[in-house]
Amino acid sequence: MSTFTLNPTLFNHTLYTRLLTLWFADLPPTAKNPTPALVSRWFGRGASAEAKRDFDAQCAATALPALESIAADQFVLPEFQSAEDDRATNYGWMAGSFAGEYTPPAPSTALPTSSANSRSSDDAGPTLSNEQSALALMLLLDQMPRNIFRAGQAPIYTHYDRIARAVAYSVYGLGLDRSERFRASAPWRMWFYLPLMHSEGLGDHAVMATKLRGLRADIDEDVRRRQEMDSGRGG
After folding, report:
1. Residue closest to 91 by CA, chosen among 212, 204, 208
2. Distance CA 198, CA 186 (A)
3. What is the pTM of this model?
């Protein structure tokens, strides 16, 4: 399969910053728990119908142009057989279209420019880390469609979920889900794993269970480390 080329005027750090801000507001990346307001935003718990509609509208305003640019008639996927078949056959080339958004640029002999840390000269906005860009893509592919396409949900399950899983496995392979920035923060890190929860493949669920155990272990390790530091200061 040939690699689909993302539109850099849509897929860039400005979009990813807007997605992260929309989803997490001012939640610190080291937070151990989400705020009640974020729980309401994410899961609709205690939110009024008007508040849910407002948040869906914000999601559409932020993400719909990018999602439409990779819709099924643009980013054409092979007929779905199974999650296992997709993982074995299709995820590599599917994720390849997105990997440049969250992988370090290849070494270059060219002279550095003032925008050396930017992925595109068309993206003059903020510069994010690879793990931040990867997390934003997880939200774009896995969460935004669920808030935007409520009236016609087929594209969520037949198209965007497949891409989300492909990108998720690519991100895991790079270890970005366990980066120091999010390593011990469940409210941030868990969104790397939601694409697997939405899968019907038992293998994906097994991987998700392993990832969540790793998250729990990293949180416990962080707690132990902080306790040791506090104990040392107290001595």
Report:
1. 204
2. 18
3. 0.88
Closest CA to 180 of 7, 29, 74, 55: 29
Residue closest to 98 by CA, chosen among 76, 72, 73, 70: 70
The span from the CA of 153 to the CA of 198, in Å, is: 13
194 vs 178: CA distance, rounded Å: 15
pLDDT tens-digit map of 55-81: 999 999 999 999 999 999 999 999 999
Q: Which residue has the tokens 């050396």?
A: 116
- C-alpha torsion sign, points 154, 155, 158, 164: negative
Could you give the dihedral angle defined by the CA atoms of residues 40, 45, 47 and 48, in that order, rounded to the nearest 10 degrees? 160
CA distance 84 to 81: 8
